[in-house]
Design goal:
Chain lengths: 246, 243
């Protein structure tokens, strides 16, 4: 019981640190919505099948989640560089409490982010239907994937490296390999194979499927497998670093 | 029971022996300063005593609990104020203290009571609702010590608590540290020799990972045959370097 209370106390602190950073509000909420508005405006003038709102909204919702990786990674790496983690290592918190404490606050943030994107999509013409809730729920699995990536990067990288790798590389990779901006199946060959081997395209397809009556569970299984593997790796790395007091 | 008892505590990093068979006892309620030039092994020794770094060999007992076999129990007994200020920058002073109280297992009501008590005791109440990132260096250090104290530690480690602060703020913090006497055993590492002389009951000097001198400031001056503590420190450290 005391361990649970400690973990929740730490999770509360992480939530405050993330929410009080203005960059979180911009990249977490404003940026995906601006992207949705901009692409919908383009769509109104030059219609493209891929950018129809029922295709675009789930894609932008998943793309927005890539910033969760940045938030998680930045928080851990900053805690380490400021020696705050060193102080926390001398408290009774265990490695599992740390990871859950970093992870849990990002789940409601992922839900809020998804809800905001779909709310704007409704204004832009997405028909109101129960499938929106299904898509929102399906989006939790990709959210876990990105959070796990963030936990891993924050654990093994310095705060300067995190900015480059999670802020630039990961968001771009997940954008180009996910099929949000173009249909990766049309490319085929090596590039299409890479997209299908990685979880980003499956994440978008699962949410599109949930919203539009397509296949969901097969795609989600791939994303969940990656998320579980990354979480396990992040836990292992964090526990090793903690043992060394790093 | 001793507050701290090290038993041939040793830590090697590859070919380098950072702490070499350290044998030291510190009594309960004592304010003990650990001095040494850069690279003498102070930080490594403190990290082992806090359970942050496993010894290569040997052991240390904190109030009877082994840092090797009972690390979790040791963490219930200690408080640490690291050299870096190490506070939650987006949290207020009060929130930082509530966090540390919560992490030490106090429930909400207990955490609130302890936070208000320590805010008063360390005169932090006037900045209680300010975010930590807006605090000056002196307030930040005061907060750092308060965060280490809120778990009611039996052994408190203060690593360079006044580093980089001006003389007035340093004197203020000295008073805060003096007020801790009798409440907890305090292990202080510092580069300011007058700080160690003014605050400590006993002083240990580390050189090349070994304890080269131990005693009160007066005893160390007498041993070195000098009239000032700074001269004694230079003489004792120099002797060790010559060996």
């Amino acid at each position: 019981m005391k361990n649970l209370r400690r973990m929740l106390c730490f999770a509360g602190r992480c939530a405050k640190e993330i929410l009080r950073d203005p960059l979180t509000l911009f990249f977490g909420l404003a940026f995906p919505i601006l992207l949705l508005l901009l692409l919908s405006l383009i769509q109104a003038h030059i219609p493209v099948d891929l950018f129809r709102i029922e295709h675009l909204a789930p894609g932008v919702a998943v793309f927005g989640q890539s910033f969760l990786a940045l938030f998680a990674a930045m928080l851990i790496s900053r805690d380490r560089s400021s020696a705050f983690l060193t102080r926390l290592y001398t408290t009774p918190l265990r490695a599992v409490d740390f990871l859950l404490g970093y992870l849990l606050p990002l789940i409601p943030m992922a839900l809020a982010q998804g809800a905001a994107v779909y709310a704007v999509a409704l204004i832009l013409g997405l028909p109101l239907r129960a499938d929106i809730l299904y898509a929102l729920a399906a989006g939790l699995v990709p959210a876990l994937l990105y959070i796990a990536l963030g936990l891993l990067c924050g654990t093994v990288l310095s705060d300067k490296q995190v900015g480059g790798i999670c802020g630039a590389l990961l968001t771009n990779l997940s954008a180009w390999l996910s099929g949000v901006w173009f249909d990766v199946t049309l490319l085929g060959g090596v590039f299409g194979g890479i997209c299908k081997a990685l979880p980003f395209w499956h994440a978008v397809e699962a949410c599109r499927g949930a919203l539009n009556g397509g296949s969901v569970w097969g795609h989600l299984a791939v994303v969940a497998a990656y998320a579980a593997a990354l979480l396990a790796l992040a836990s292992l790395c964090f526990a090793r670093k903690m043992k060394k007091g790093e | 029971m001793h507050a701290i008892e090290t038993q041939a505590l040793t830590r090697r990093f590859g070919a380098l022996t950072a702490v070499d068979g350290l044998n030291l006892t510190v009594e309960e309620g004592e304010l003990f300063a650990l001095l040494g030039v850069n690279g003498a092994g102070k930080t490594t020794a403190i990290r082992m005593l806090c359970g942050l770094l496993a010894p290569t060999s040997g052991d240390a007992l904190i109030c009877g609990k082994s840092v090797v076999r009972e690390t979790a129990a040791v963490k219930q007994l200690i408080g640490v104020s690291p050299q870096e200020t190490a506070v939650g920058l987006h949290l207020t002073v009060r929130e930082n203290l509530l966090l540390m109280a919560g992490l030490h297992g106090f429930d909400k009501a207990q955490s609130r009571d302890k936070t208000e008590e320590i805010l008063r005791r360390l005169h932090l109440d006037q900045v209680a609702d300010k975010r930590a990132k807006t605090l000056s260096g002196g307030w930040m250090r005061r907060l750092s010590i308060a965060m280490a104290l809120i778990g009611e530690p039996r052994v408190l480690f203060l690593d360079e608590p006044t580093l980089g602060l001006d003389v007035l703020i340093r004197r203020e913090l000295w008073q805060v540290i003096r007020d801790l006497k009798g409440r907890a055993t305090v292990i202080l590492t510092t580069h300011y020799l007058e700080e160690a002389q003014s605050l400590s009951d006993r002083i240990g000097i580390l050189g090349h990972g070994r304890l080269t001198a131990l005693g009160t400031a007066e005893e160390l001056m007498a041993a070195a045959g000098t009239g000032s503590f700074e001269e004694a420190f230079v003489a004792l450290v120099g002797e060790e370097a010559a060996k």
